[in-house]
Amino acid sequence: MAVADSVVAVVAVINQKEGSPVIKKKPKSVSKALATATCALLGTTAMPVQAQEEPAWEFDTSLLYYSEDDGRVQDVSIALLARRLFADDKILTLGLTVDSLTGATPVGAAPLDVVQTITRPSGNSTFDVAPNTLPLDDTFLDTRYAFNASWQQPLGRLYNGNVGISFSKEYDYVHSGVNAGISRDFNKKNTTVSLGFALSKDDIEPIGGTPMALTPMLDVGDLSNRLGNETKDVVDLLFGVTQVISRNLLVQVNYSYSDSSGYLSDPFKILSVVDPITGDTLPRVPTPGVDGPSHQFLFEGRPDERVKHSLYTQAKYYMSGKVLDISYRYMTDDWDIDSHTVDARLKFPIGNASYIEPHVRFYTQTEANFYRATLSAGEPLPLFASADYRLGNFDALTAGAKYGWKTGSGHDISFRLEYYMQDGDVPSGQLIGNQLQRDMYPGLNAIIFNFSYGFGL
Amino acid sequence: MHLPGNTRFLLTLCLIALFSTAAGAADELEVIDLTAHKGKVVIVDFWASWCVPCRRSFPWLNEMQAKYADQGLVIIGVNEDTSEEEVAGFLADYPARFEIVRDNEGSLATEFGVVAMPSSYIIGRDGKIATRHLGFKTKLMDEYEATIQEILNAAPQVAASR
Amino acid sequence: MSNKKLYSMKLIFCVPALLAISACSSLGVEPWERDVLAKDEMQLVTDPIEAATDDHIYFSKEASSGGRGFGGGGCGCN
Q1: How far apart are CA A45 and CA C61, in angstroms?
Q2: Which residue in chain B is spatially nearest to C31 when comparing CA positions?
């Protein structure tokens, strides 16, 4: 391309303040700069004026199938997200999700070499656990409805604000929340600082009432250690900085603070009381003529407060058509749980309209300071204890890929298939006697399958 | 070339058009000189195909160009895309009834000190930049139009001298 | 969690964050160079439903949740 020769342009420059321009003369050779400017007298043809309108509504739909093996939890979920775009970058977002859960979940009791009988959470009947299998409660049927709405709009040229509400209901749990946030741009919008907060109030209404912490599981129909409903309040705060590093690289760093208070236990989880030498769960003498647990179990109890701190950082990097999305999150809390999460996705375009995006996620956490695989008879009862594997010491891996394309009419379709596995163990100091030969910590293997369809109107 | 210091301020956009066919055949050089628009009010609007508010601004710019052309309004859209395909795609959906120039190395944007996309610089009949607008908000369209009318009707401030 | 750990965590984050606004004034691109950043696939959250779905799965199966924020990136228009 030929470089324009000695053309000198006088450029008038106004100062930054609008409405009071100060004109400075700046003689300058812009020949090099103008060299590649292309002038095209386009748009002077007499075409019909009706320009294609931006879609006013954008819809995203999703169908999720989540399934753990060994008869564990299965979830089928349908989600709908609708976004209404208004003039001047105002957006209304509405979301609705319906989850249908079936299957069984570990109750927290330890496996044993004999049959165990456990009272169901409702207190209405019992179920049996085969020898040398992980005790699972299969009355875990539930349908959950969740709804959220939010409004987002610019406030002036440099600020953007958002407010929202969230609500969800399942038969024993109701959540309601509000959230709001504000962000401000700096450095010609290369830097954005964000502040957000969310408040939520949850109502826990387990069937049969909330069990008193660390009290024994009783016979069918005996609800003497059950209380009424409970509540849980959560306050979340977020402070974030997003920074454009280069034309192809964007980075975000967020600090989050979360304070939960109220009833934080799982009303359905128990711990086995074991012999301090053999490690075997102690049998229990049931009341004559009444069904009840065959062995000794205590309902779990967690602290009534939890403060979490998280540091999250994410980068998006564009490399000639491919996009790398990589993030790291560190979480630490006052239950002594520390976790690290590394998540990476790489989107490869295929032709003009499709893409494939492999995904891998590593997760590791240390156990809560009140995590106990079992409780030993005769030891002083701890203040808090839980055998819930989700508070335990484990690593998790997600691996999979998403394949998607844009249809001729501009609709987005994608399929995602991932494998999620957890593998953990009981801290060695906690295992006693025969427990050392048993598989005391439940692993998890699950398939995640997700179909999504998005379109605009 | 050198312009004497006391010459009136004149904004000259010298644009060199480089047309090359797909087969990379003969090049044509075309120089467009804004001195042709002397005495007119010129709006220099910086836009790009990836800029969402630009889709809303184009129909309005078309309207302004048509409405005030006979009063001496000239609109020049300076495009900042680096890909011609993207520009053509945008213009197919949002046609422009005003002059479009390419600035794919951003040198003109740098010269003007563009701090937001889109940006409109309105140059008065005297060749000075009268005002600029950052961004495009549909709720301010009437205000933008009022400013244009004001500048179209303003008496020239500086007498021509050589 | 110990106070010392909390303090050093706050320091590790707050100091860079405060510096970010001033020091980062040298980082970034010009407003007209945001073609790549404006692409859908370059947004911090490209698929809100997928992000919400995953957040819900991992919230149900693990002890950590959240972390993501909002704001920034994109075309930077208006």
Answers
A1: 61
A2: B116
In a domain, B30, yes or no: no
Tokens, residue A152:
């987002």
The answer to whether the Cβ–Cβ distance between B117 and C33 falls below 8 Å is no
B131 shares contact with chain A (CB less than 8 Å): yes
B60 located within any domain: yes
Separation CA B21–CA A239 (nearest Å): 52
Record: contact A88-B137, CB cut-off 8 A: yes
**Residue whose structure tokens are 């008193």:** A212
The domains located in chain A, with CATH, are 1-44 (no CATH), 65-456 (2.40.160)
Contact A253 C5 (CB under 8 A): no
Number of domains in chain B: 1
Asked whether the beta carbons of residue A310 and residue C64 sit closer than 8 angstroms, the reply is: yes
Q: Closest partner residue to C49 among A60, A190, A390, by Cβ? A: A60
Chain C CA closest to residue A159: C71
Q: What is the CATH number of the domain that holds B137?
A: 3.40.30.10
- Residue C57 within a domain: yes
Q: What is the pLDDT of residues A288-327, one digit of tens each?
A: 889 999 999 999 999 999 999 999 999 999 999 999 999 9
> Residue B74's domain spans which residues?
37-153
Q: Is C76 within a domain? A: no
Residue C61, domain member (yes or no): yes
Inter-chain contact C38–B50, Cβ cutoff 8 Å? yes
B108 and A CB contact within 8 Å: yes
The answer to the question of residue B26 being in a domain is no
Chain A partners within 8 Å of B34 (Cβ): none
Contact A190 C29 (CB under 8 A): yes
What is the distance, to the nearest Å, from the Cα of residue A320 to the centroid of all Cα atoms in its chain? Answer: 30
Sign of the alpha-carbon torsion through A149, A153, A155, A160? positive
CB proximity under 8 Å: A 181-200 to B: 188-189
- Report the residue of C42, C43, C55, C59 to disrupt the A interface, i.e. the one with the largest count of A CBs within 10 Å: C42
Residue B27 CB partners (closer than 8 Å, separation 6+): A2, B18, B19, B20
What is the three-class DSSP state of A100? strand
User: Nearest CA to B118 among B42, B58, B32?
Assistant: B58
To the nearest whole percent, how much of chain B has pLDDT over 90? 54
Residue B34's pLDDT is what?
67
Q: Are A365 and A246 in contact (CB under 8 A)?
A: no
Least Cα separation, residue B158 to chain C (angstroms) = 33
Per residue in B99-154, pLDDT tens? 999 988 888 899 899 999 999 999 988 888 899 999 999 999 999 999 999 999 98
**Looking at the domain assignment, is residue C75 inside a domain?**
no
When divided into structural domains, chain C yields a total of: 1
**Contact status of C64 with chain A (Cβ, < 8 Å):** yes
Q: Residues 142 to 161 of B: which have CB under 8 A from any A CB? A: none
* CB crowding B35-51: b at 16 or more within 10 Å, else e: eebeebbbbbbbbbbbb
Task: Report CB contact under 8 Å: B107, A38.
Answer: no
**Touching subunits for chain B (3+ Cβ pairs under 8 A):** A, C
* Among A133-147, B145-159, C16-30, the least confident range: C16-30
Per-residue confidence (pLDDT) for residue B37, from 0 to 100: 82
